[in-house]
């Protein structure tokens, strides 16, 4: 991004568009540097490519503790690679042929599109949501989309916790997806990269906890594949460490055939082994992060309410979906279309020194919404909010 | 590898098959750890994906000093990614369509095959060599191969210094390749990953120095792309740091479209910036490495001569091509074919505790040769040689 905000450039653009959590840099850097400066002979040699035994068993351990899978995740079911974007590419590659497609509930994380299409040539086919629930997708809606694209649909891809909403799926909704893929012999890819970043246990006043698909009764576990990594829950986007967890031996074997192209380096195995070794350190870090996310969420929602900005309630990850349709209409009453008005308002925000992601970036059908990331120090976040309000 | 040799398992298999240089671990680890334990805020964030400006300009600086290109290599012509294997995949991907092919002089580095085929679906078509020169390929030989595969040939791929021979190409030979690709509007990929590991300046008694294709008169520089990385010359295989250097803006742009899938992590940018910053440190490291390689080469060739093992003279990289046709025939006089005898002899070597790579791994047309890596401490290397001699 040109002209980014920093302490020496306070008029620069504050980035609340990229999903980065900057609340725990000090703690995570301390832990990383503990192991990072201790490269050994073995790190110079070719490693195992798909993650060392210790790395994979440590990841399995974390997920078994936090995802509470029905059936324990084994190290052999974990494939480690260079970030979750490449892991979307890889799971798409091994499950599909060029021209195949996955159904995705819209609005959706825009990266799914590029990650599946760029190398694997796999498409996404959006499905809408019910009027009363932004994450609600009925069996009928899925069937309708499927009927139109039967030849190419290979499965469903979701982000849970959801991106852009920052909301967790209910067990009932997940079971709709699970039954559907099972009925049609398809696959469910559940991107659970924000799994450890649930900061509240309610949504719209109702008890709502993160539920991993792995914790449910799966008629065929080999049709459900989850993605996780250190980018979000451990605030390490730049380190490019992701994982695919699959109960399907053929899928894991197929992934390994590509591991040379998407492996993490050997020294990262050493680092991850240290990072994920102590349950106590992990629990402390995760709960500290969740507390900080909750603090920021309370502050930002207080502020939004005061400024009459509608938003969709969130409980996880570190972004939320705000509704600026009214404000945009007031500022640009004569725009050709709501989509164009959104783009013009987005430029206005950039000119006022704040970058948040417009609904178009999530292929939303209804314009006028923005995703705002709130995992930034409050003094910067509140300055960004002022710049947004100034744009109304 | 199962049952590897180490100081606690002296009867384990000594690996002289994998191209790893273990002569400078102490020096390189010191330098790596100097920068590696100092991760900063910026390393946690998404980086530039194709290498930071500083990383790319430092790589350009090294190559300008050691490759002596006719036209200075600019940082903007350097694309950095996760190892040279993935970079072969990437350059194959952007220059070709599935089913296309590159001519490769045989025997050749077997990785070219998998790196081009696995994701990109690109083939290699071998061309032989002249009777009097293991690296000699005439225009006529290239034309003959091309005529048979015209529709799919996209160019030529070579390793210079050559793998498996450890020999440098002459300017005259490189010009044969250059003229050929230019005549037919093809591309030359020159993998120069061992460029800084020339340890002697003669071959077969004749003055022979490494010459980069970039140092020659190129009728069309946009048709010549080189590969380099830190794996070999800096003994850092496990770190997965490679680079493509191309004068073609469309090629660099196309590569960038894929950079998300093959980037190096942000903390490695920090590390490389430090590693390649001081010309003095680099020069000292490179000449120390070359001296150590030369010492080992003198020792191993002395030993081979004493044991009547024929070999092809080498001057670069850290392996050589030994001729065991006679010895294999003596041990397995009744084998169905030379190829089968080679495999049986290879198993015999493994059983005797040493792994060297058979000619089949390099798709050689004539069996009975092995590539032996000699960049290992002499006490281990000499033990491995004893195990080889014991197998005769």
How would you portray this structure in words?
- The structure is a homodimer of 392-residue chains.
- The first copy, chain A, is α/β, with parallel strands linked by helices and 392 residues long.
- The first copy, chain A, folds into two domains: 123 residues, Alpha-Beta Complex (Aspartate Aminotransferase, domain 1); 238 residues, 3-Layer(aba) Sandwich (Aspartate Aminotransferase, domain 2), CATH 3.40.640.10.
- In chain A, 40% of the residues lie in helices and 15% in strands.
- A seven-stranded mixed beta sheet of chain A has the order 2-10-9-6-5-3-4, sandwiched between helices. In chain A, strands 11-12-15-14 form a four-stranded antiparallel beta sheet. A two-stranded parallel sheet of chain A has the order 1-13.
- The interface between A and B is large, with 46 and 46 residues.
- Chains A, B: It comes from Anaeromyces robustus.
- Chains A, B: Keywords: Pyridoxal phosphate, Transferase.
- Chains A, B: InterPro entries: Aminotransferase_I/II_large (IPR004839), Ethylene_sulfur-biosynth (IPR050478), PyrdxlP-dep_Trfase (IPR015424), PyrdxlP-dep_Trfase_major (IPR015421), PyrdxlP-dep_Trfase_small (IPR015422).
- Chains A, B: It holds the Pfam family Aminotran_1_2.
